[in-house]
Amino acid sequence: MILLVEDEAESRYTLARILRHHGYDVMEAADGNEALDLLEKSHFDVVISDLRMPHQTGLVLVAHIHVKWPQMPVLLMSGYLSEDAGKLLSEGWAKFIHKPVYPSDLIATVQRLLQKSKAQTVVASSTPKLYRRKQQSEVWHFSTNCSQWPGEDYVEQRQVPSTSEMCNECTVEWLTANSH
Predict the structure, then answer these.
(1) Is 37 in the same domain as 18?
(2) What is the pLDDT of residue 127?
(3) Could you give the number of structural domains in the chain?
(4) How far apart are the first and last CA of the chain?
(5) I want to staple 170 with a disulfide (CB 3.0 to 4.6 A). Which of 60, 94, 143, 153 is the partner?
(6) Element (DSSP H or E) covering residue 139
(7) pTM of the model
(8) Are strands 74-78 and 95-98 parallel, antiparallel or unpaired?
């Protein structure tokens, strides 16, 4: 399933129609906040997002996705490419497609991302990250530098369920370290 995040309703409708015409299941979100809610509730194979949106930009959305779902392929769309977006692209966090989006380019890029996603799933399952939470807590931690990193009486696992919450301190630390 593809998550399409675009604040302009007409563009979102057109892109979703193109994807559906080529046989893809698509869920739509009007902004980054709505997209994160959907990501928590459903499994997606690819996220396609506009770069410039109100409430939460595509850059912030990509950063959140990279923290919680690091193997999730993301395609950013925009009429321009900022320096910050360029950093995300150069670090491999997302792919980029220039607006206006041509249907043939969109479909070809989605096909490549889906193939890459399947290959990464195999690799990720062999080298998962370690997560911990306290026995009585629902909040997961991934940074050993976290002041709340459980040292005893904890549950440990290799992959965080999509419905779990991540520690704010771990998330902020990660975003700060990777925003420069």
Answers:
(1) yes
(2) 39
(3) 2
(4) 32
(5) 143
(6) strand 139-140
(7) 0.64
(8) parallel
- The identity of residue 8, as a single letter, is E
Residue 33 sits in the same domain as residue 79: yes
Predicted confidence band of residue 49 (pLDDT cuts 50, 70, 90):
very high
What CATH number is attached to the domain comprising 58? 3.40.50.2300
- Cα(180)–Cα(178) distance, integer angstroms: 6
Give the gyration radius of the chain's Cα atoms: 17
- Angle, in degrees to the nearest 10, between helices 9-21 and 103-126: 70
Span 110-137, average pLDDT: 66
What is the rounded distance in angstroms from the CA atom of residue 27 to the CA atom of residue 34?
A: 11
- Domain holding 148, by residue range, is 131-177
Same domain, yes or no, for 79 and 162?
no
Q: Tell which of 102, 126, 150 closes a domain.
A: 126
- Check whether residue 17 and residue 97 sit in a common domain: yes
> DSSP labels for 28-56?
EESSHHHHHHHHHHS--SEEEEESS-SSS
Residue type for 37, please? Answer: D
